[in-house]
Write a sequence for this structure.
């Protein structure tokens, strides 16, 4: 469990998928992140988009510069790490955009990705518990008495409901499943807030922007994809 103190502003950004220019613009020009702010990232930093390496380097740079940034693990980080262990996992990763990540590093195998980046991804937690919300990449398995015991669900499930009792009265915030801006806005009135606007799917109706949610005011901000 991770309990993190509230700060002046708290932002949540979901699936970035190798869109480094879009992420930088959202954080530095739209949000104008300040060292007193806290930024939570919901995973899927890599794959599909053109600049996976640059996304990870940007996150590392911000953290090393003293910004309060808390990244979570997504299913794409999980696939990369597994791809370094066996060939079936490597093939699965390739079917889900892993080739774009390899290209961004100029390598042909997951194990050739620099160890500091793989170590960073391997250390990412699957979820974060705050006083008012629970943050996770994909969702939680509320069929279980303890939804926090199903790690696979945190990375892969596409939830349609939440359970306020099992979350101690808190809301659940996740990415993973692309939603239109209208659907994202509507979710703010529910216990299940879904933030993924399918940034990497530029050109598809209703998608193609990177979203950010300011938790204290429930204000949504968007940056259209400028990488693709």
């Amino acid at each position: 469990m991770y309990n993190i103190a509230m700060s002046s502003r708290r932002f949540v950004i979901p699936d970035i998928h190798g869109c480094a220019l879009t992420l930088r613009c959202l954080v530095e020009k739209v949000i104008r992140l300040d060292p007193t702010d806290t930024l939570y990232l919901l995973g899927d930093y890599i794959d599909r988009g053109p600049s996976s390496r640059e996304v990870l380097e940007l996150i590392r740079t911000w953290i090393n510069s003293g910004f309060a940034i808390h990244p979570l693990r997504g299913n794409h980080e999980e696939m990369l790490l597994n791809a370094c262990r066996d060939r079936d996992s490597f093939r699965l990763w390739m079917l889900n955009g892993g080739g774009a990540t390899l290209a961004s590093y100029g390598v042909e195998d997951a194990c050739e990705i620099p160890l500091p980046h793989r170590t960073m991804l391997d250390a990412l937690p699957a979820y974060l518990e705050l006083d008012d919300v629970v943050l996770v990449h994909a969702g939680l398995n509320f069929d279980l008495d303890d939804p926090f015991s199903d790690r696979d669900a945190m990375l892969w499930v596409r939830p349609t409901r939440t359970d306020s009792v099992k979350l101690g009265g808190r809301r659940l915030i996740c990415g993973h499943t692309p939603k239109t801006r209208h659907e994202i806005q509507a979710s703010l009135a529910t216990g299940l807030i879904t933030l993924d606007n399918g940034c990497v799917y530029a050109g598809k109706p209703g998608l193609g922007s990177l979203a950010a949610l300011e938790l204290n005011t429930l204000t949504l901000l968007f940056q259209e994809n400028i990488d693709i």
About this structure: Helices lie at 20-31, 52-64, 75-83, 87-95, 98-105, 115-122, 151-156, 181-187. The longest strand covers residues 209-214. The chain has a mean pLDDT of 96.
